[in-house]
Structure formats: structure tokens, C-alpha cells
Amino acid sequence: DAAAELFIEQGYGAATTRQIADAVGVRQASIYYHFGNKQEILAELLADTVRPSLDFSRGLDPAQAPAAARLYALTRFDVALLGGGRWNIGALYTMPELGAPEFAAFRQEREELRHAYGELVAAAAAEGADAIADHSVATSLVFALAEGVIAMRAQRIPCPADLPDVVAASVLRLLGCEEAAIEAARTHPAVRPTP
After folding, report:
1. What is the DSSP string of 2-50?
2. How far is residue 119 from each of residues 65, 104, 115, 135, 176, measured CA to CA in Å?
3. Phi, psi (5° rounding) for residue 117?
4. Which of 83, 81, 91 is nearest to 56 (CA)?
5. Cβ(5)–Cβ(85) below 8 Å
6. How far apart (Å, rounded) are the C-alpha atoms in residues 60 and 85?
């Protein structure tokens, strides 16, 4: 938490492990019992913004819910996760430092999450939600819409409690779903409480 605050408030490059240790009330050397360096701390924070949504996507069973309901559920979960943390870690996604090998696992998991969205977009299109013919474009738009909460938080725009549902419904509208289908997705048992 202390590292997240420093990375967001001061910038990743400016924050030091000494500052993190001081904020926690421990000696700097104590940090190295848990993390090898500052990059490992950031990698763990970044993983916490992607891994829960990726795990959630893996639990969405096609036999249990139509694609629109699964896409709604994933989007809702992801937006709640990104919008609900104390610190807006997603704002660090565009840092050039994330191209370093130390962050390869994060980049891979984020791409896997994007792929999970893409599979649901394609499945929803097969079920009739095909307003955007190019599934790659549709996936990019859907993923950007879900991650839009990051930009809102960075601009200090208040995120209302119903934002996960608003974004999830907007994703389905973007794909051409009718309001009745959106309501059916919203109320489907696959749509569990947000994190």
C-alpha cells in the first residue's frame, strides 16, 4: 500500500525503497526479505490489477451462461476491480519501464485478459451481438471501455457505485445487444457481486 501510494503520488521513478520503508515504519533492509527490488514490488501491484479478472474469466462456464452474460460479468468484475482499489495502479500501465523483462509476466497476463475479452466478444457475435464486424476492433473497444475507469480515476472524476454495471451495459450496447438482452445479462446468475 505504501509503495502504491508513492508510485502514484510521486511517480515510480522518483519513489525509493527507502521511502517505502519509512512509510511502513521498517528498515530499508527489511523490504528485501519480501522483494528483491523496487521492480518486484511494482510487478506485484500490477499483477493485482489483472490476475483477479483473469481468474474470474476462467471461471465463466459457457455451459452456464450465454456469452453476453459472461461478457457483462467479466466487464463488471474488471471495472469494479480497477475502480475499487485505494490507489489507481492502472495509471502506471503506460510507463515505458513496463517494457523491461521484469514485467513480462504482467504483460502476458494482461494480454491473456484481453484475449479472454476477445473470446467473449466473438462468442457474443456468434449469438447475434455483431454490430462491429471486425472482432479485433470490437475487442479493442471493449477492453478500452473496461479500462476507461483508469483514466477517470487519473482525472479525479468520481466513479459512482453503479459504474461497473454502466460500463458492462455499454459494452453490450456497443456490440449491438438489445436492451432486453442487456437486462437478461445483468440479472443472470453468472453476474456475481463485484470484488
Report:
1. HHHHHHHHH-TTT--HHHHHHHHTS-HHHHTTT-SSHHHHHHHHHHHHH
2. 14, 22, 6, 9, 17
3. -60, -45
4. 81
5. no
6. 23
Grid coordinates belonging to 73: 460479468
Alpha carbon distances (Å) from 32 to 17, 39, 123: 9, 12, 45
- The position carrying cell 521513478 is 13
Give the C-alpha separation, 49 to 30, whole Å: 25
d(CA 146, CA 117): 10
* Cα diameter, the chain: 58
**Which residue type occupies 36?**
G
| Euclidean distance between CA atoms 106 and 45, whole angstroms | 10
Amino acid identity of residue 83, one-letter, is: G
Chain-centroid distance, C-alpha 130: 24
Q: Is residue 123 a contact partner of residue 38, using CB atoms and an 8 Å limit?
A: no
Q: Give pLDDT tens digits for 62-121.
A: 989 999 999 999 999 999 999 998 999 999 999 999 999 999 999 999 999 999 999 999
pTM above 0.70, yes or no: yes
Cell triple for 111: 494480454
E strands within 138-193?
none
